Amino acid sequence: MNQERRAQWLRGVLDLCVLAMLARRESYGYELSQALEAAGLGPVKGGTLYPVLLRLQRAGLIVAYWREGGAGPARKYYRITGDGHDVLRQAAADWDRFAGGVGAILREVSAR
Length: 112
What we know:
Blueprint: H1 3-24, E1 27-28, H2 29-41, H3 46-58, E2 62-67, E3 75-80, H4 82-111
Antiparallel strand pairs: 1-3, 2-3
Protein backbone atom coordinates (compact mmCIF):
# COMPACT_ATOMS: atom_id res chain seq x y z
CA MET A 1 0.00 0.00 0.00
CA ASN A 2 1.17 3.49 -0.77
CA GLN A 3 2.38 4.87 2.58
CA GLU A 4 1.49 8.49 1.83
CA ARG A 5 -2.07 7.52 0.90
CA ARG A 6 -2.32 5.34 4.03
CA ALA A 7 -1.12 8.27 6.18
CA GLN A 8 -3.74 10.59 4.65
CA TRP A 9 -6.54 8.07 5.19
CA LEU A 10 -5.37 7.44 8.75
CA ARG A 11 -5.40 11.16 9.57
CA GLY A 12 -9.01 11.28 8.46
CA VAL A 13 -10.31 8.36 10.51
CA LEU A 14 -7.95 7.82 13.44
CA ASP A 15 -10.05 9.79 15.93
CA LEU A 16 -13.13 7.72 15.04
CA CYS A 17 -11.20 4.47 15.27
CA VAL A 18 -9.82 5.45 18.69
CA LEU A 19 -13.32 6.32 19.92
CA ALA A 20 -14.61 2.98 18.60
CA MET A 21 -11.81 1.08 20.35
CA LEU A 22 -12.53 2.90 23.60
CA ALA A 23 -16.25 2.16 23.21
CA ARG A 24 -15.28 -1.52 23.43
CA ARG A 25 -13.28 -0.99 26.63
CA GLU A 26 -11.00 1.50 28.33
CA SER A 27 -7.35 1.24 27.39
CA TYR A 28 -3.94 2.89 27.52
CA GLY A 29 -1.93 4.31 24.63
CA TYR A 30 0.36 1.40 23.77
CA GLU A 31 -2.51 -1.06 23.98
CA LEU A 32 -4.60 1.15 21.67
CA SER A 33 -1.71 1.35 19.21
CA GLN A 34 -1.42 -2.45 19.16
CA ALA A 35 -5.18 -2.89 18.73
CA LEU A 36 -5.29 -0.43 15.83
CA GLU A 37 -2.45 -2.26 14.11
CA ALA A 38 -4.11 -5.64 14.71
CA ALA A 39 -7.30 -4.23 13.16
CA GLY A 40 -5.41 -3.59 9.93
CA LEU A 41 -4.58 0.12 10.18
CA GLY A 42 -0.85 -0.59 10.24
CA PRO A 43 1.55 0.79 12.82
CA VAL A 44 0.32 3.88 14.67
CA LYS A 45 3.20 5.56 16.45
CA GLY A 46 2.88 7.48 19.69
CA GLY A 47 3.64 10.76 17.92
CA THR A 48 0.46 10.21 15.92
CA LEU A 49 -1.74 8.62 18.58
CA TYR A 50 -1.11 10.80 21.64
CA PRO A 51 -2.09 14.10 19.98
CA VAL A 52 -5.37 12.45 18.93
CA LEU A 53 -5.98 11.28 22.50
CA LEU A 54 -5.27 14.77 23.82
CA ARG A 55 -7.58 16.37 21.25
CA LEU A 56 -10.39 13.92 22.11
CA GLN A 57 -9.84 14.59 25.81
CA ARG A 58 -9.96 18.37 25.35
CA ALA A 59 -13.19 17.97 23.37
CA GLY A 60 -14.74 16.04 26.26
CA LEU A 61 -15.14 12.86 24.22
CA ILE A 62 -12.78 10.81 26.41
CA VAL A 63 -11.40 11.09 29.93
CA ALA A 64 -7.99 10.00 31.18
CA TYR A 65 -6.91 8.68 34.54
CA TRP A 66 -3.87 6.98 36.01
CA ARG A 67 -4.00 3.34 37.09
CA GLU A 68 -1.29 1.52 39.00
CA GLY A 69 0.46 -1.15 36.98
CA GLY A 70 0.64 -4.65 38.45
CA ALA A 71 4.21 -5.34 37.39
CA GLY A 72 5.34 -1.90 36.28
CA PRO A 73 4.71 1.81 36.52
CA ALA A 74 1.27 3.41 36.51
CA ARG A 75 -0.38 3.81 33.12
CA LYS A 76 -2.64 6.53 31.78
CA TYR A 77 -5.92 4.93 30.78
CA TYR A 78 -8.56 6.45 28.53
CA ARG A 79 -12.34 5.95 28.67
CA ILE A 80 -15.02 7.22 26.30
CA THR A 81 -17.62 9.64 27.71
CA GLY A 82 -21.35 9.88 27.01
CA ASP A 83 -20.65 12.71 24.56
CA GLY A 84 -18.01 10.52 22.95
CA HIS A 85 -20.56 7.74 22.43
CA ASP A 86 -22.98 10.24 20.86
CA VAL A 87 -20.32 11.61 18.49
CA LEU A 88 -19.20 8.09 17.61
CA ARG A 89 -22.73 6.92 16.74
CA GLN A 90 -23.28 9.90 14.42
CA ALA A 91 -19.82 9.62 12.88
CA ALA A 92 -20.30 5.88 12.26
CA ALA A 93 -23.51 6.62 10.34
CA ASP A 94 -21.77 9.40 8.39
CA TRP A 95 -18.85 7.08 7.63
CA ASP A 96 -21.16 4.32 6.35
CA ARG A 97 -22.76 6.74 3.89
CA PHE A 98 -19.41 8.19 2.79
CA ALA A 99 -17.62 4.83 2.47
CA GLY A 100 -20.60 3.42 0.60
CA GLY A 101 -20.30 6.20 -1.98
CA VAL A 102 -16.56 5.71 -2.36
CA GLY A 103 -17.07 1.96 -2.63
CA ALA A 104 -19.67 2.38 -5.35
CA ILE A 105 -17.32 4.58 -7.39
CA LEU A 106 -14.37 2.22 -6.99
CA ARG A 107 -16.44 -0.87 -7.83
CA GLU A 108 -17.09 0.69 -11.24
CA VAL A 109 -13.33 0.77 -11.83
CA SER A 110 -12.89 -2.83 -10.65
CA ALA A 111 -15.67 -4.04 -12.95
CA ARG A 112 -13.94 -2.78 -16.09
